[in-house]
Amino acid sequence: MNTQGILEKPPYAVIAILFTGAFVSLINETLLNVALPSIMKDFEVSPSTVQWLSTGYMLINGILIPASAFFLQKFSNRQLFITAMSLFTAGTVLAAFSPTFWVLLVARMIQAAGSAIMAPLLMNVILVSFPVERRGTAMGVFGLVMITAPAIGPTLSGWLIEHYSWRTLFELVIPIAAFTLVLAIFKLKNILPQKKITLDIFSLILSSIGFGGILYGFSSAGEKGWDSVHVYAPIIVGTASLILFILRQLKLEEPLLEFRIYKYPMFALSSAISIVISMAMFSAMLLMPIYIQTIRSISPFHSGLLMLPGAIVMGIMSPITGRLFDKFGARILAVIGLSITIYTTYLFSHLTMETSYEYLMFLYALRMFGMSMVMMPVMTNGINQLPQSMNPHATAMNNTLQQVSGAVGSAFLVTLMQNRTEAEAERLAKEAASDPAVMADPNAMNDIMNQAMLNGINFSFKISVLIALVALVLAFFIKRVKPETEADLRKSAS
Fold it and tell me: Which of 426, 302, 309 shows the shortest CA–CA distance to 364?
């Protein structure tokens, strides 16, 4: 390593192995969503029960990702990856052959325990492998994994479910996961620096209750409603635990998650922008399938297919955006990208019953093009201000906040959509009651509900425009930065 803690030569073989592991674990997050109705039918469980296959996976991630900073400093990248990949592979095998729903749920949680460490581990290896002036290109490739893998999941899943059993989703992943694990055992080397640190158990408990409670509460809001004890109780307990967790971290010499990184203004700004973007991004990812499948009665496969060009655009653009970041910095990319995102989101707020499939596909791809210019450049610019020793905490913080803001954004937008739908349904039903010709139509009530839901979706997209506008305003304050060295840190401390 050089004086800045950067490796003299990037370990491309190590990065390739971690890249494969992260890709297969991240694609697994969204692979199961389209298959939930089939699993519900096979195991004869309710929608609220089957939803735990997604919610449980997210909760385990939300609990373990904050602790990833500790794991990354305490253990070697070889130990971590082999352990994580072993858990993920074991969970995948168990899921493929699970005889009951509850065995499948346990298998998904084992998968999640392995998956949680993959992205932070890969990001930290990239950060110590490349100097700041080449980091954008490297993080662009990382963005290829982070964004493209979850986006491809629904399309692949939709096609497989139409032709095969839902178990095929796991059977397909087993050989790739097993091969990656064997490759890691024989080829993976240690490159991350390690420290002798101890785990503060109380911090881990507070973190688990805090992030887990908030994620569970907001994730349940769309289904159970905000007045349900299953929603507000976890959010209240989670928020209180999170406040205690933060106060404790500020007092510890070796915190589980270092909140002092927010004294660096560009990292704080990048976090704020990332939170806002994550909330806005979920509008299209969440609302589009509802519009396409429920209102327009388009098949799950074609629903996933509609989003595929957007995933491909992001995949192509991610490394290109990384190079542009190295050359021009994050501000101009973020401003252009957010302007495209805001414009396309505004167009999405004017959907009709006749909006063409091709137009939707083009608009979604254009929106993803805008998004590809924002997330990784903004995040990388924030991390670039931090000294190398704080990278594990930065990646853990970014990944945790994305999980939480995604859940909050989803719940918020779904609630807005449902409230607007109910109000519009009531209004349209009153109008229809005064027209005997409409009431005589047997499909009238169904048409009213579809129109009400469409109005609700359009309203949620309009709110997403306002959320994204906040990110655009913040983007104008982005400045290009260089990291502090450890010598600078010691100087400022003295």
Answer: 309
CB 345 within 8 A of CB 331: no
Residues 250 and 134 in one domain: no
Smallest CA-to-CA distance from 235 within 255, 210, 253, 217 is with 217
The token duo for 257 is 């998650």
User: Cα-flanking dihedrals φ and ψ of residue 205, to 5°?
Assistant: -65, -45
How far apart are the C-alpha atoms of 57 and 403, rounded to whole Å? 11
257-284 pLDDT tens trace: 888 889 999 999 999 998 888 887 766 6
The length of the chain, given as a count of residues: 494
Q: Per-residue pLDDT tens for 109-125?
A: 999 899 888 878 887 88
| 128, 273: one domain | no
Domain count, the chain: 3
Give CA separation, 219 vs 39, 61, 154, 211, 410, in Å: 20, 14, 19, 12, 7
Question: Residue 148: what pLDDT?
Answer: 66
Rounded mean pLDDT for each run of 10 residues along the chain, 494 residues in total? 56 82 80 76 78 78 81 85 93 93 92 86 79 72 68 73 84 91 87 78 89 82 78 91 92 86 91 86 71 78 79 82 86 94 93 90 90 86 84 83 78 81 84 67 75 90 91 92 60 52
Inter-axis angle of helices 357-372 and 300-328, nearest 10: 30
- Cα end-to-end span (Å), the chain: 26
CA–CA separation, 286 and 414 (whole Å) = 8
Per-residue CA distances from 411 to 145, 220, 406 (Å): 25, 8, 9
250: containing domain: 200-255
- pLDDT at residue 465, as a whole number: 92
Q: What is the largest distance, in Å, between two alpha-carbon atoms of the chain?
A: 83
- Do 4 and 102 belong together in one domain? yes
Contact between 372 and 312 (Cβ < 8 Å): no
Residues 130 and 7 in one domain: yes
Same domain, 371 and 451: yes
Give the pTM. 0.78
Q: Which of 339, 311, 330 has its CA nearest to residue 376?
A: 330
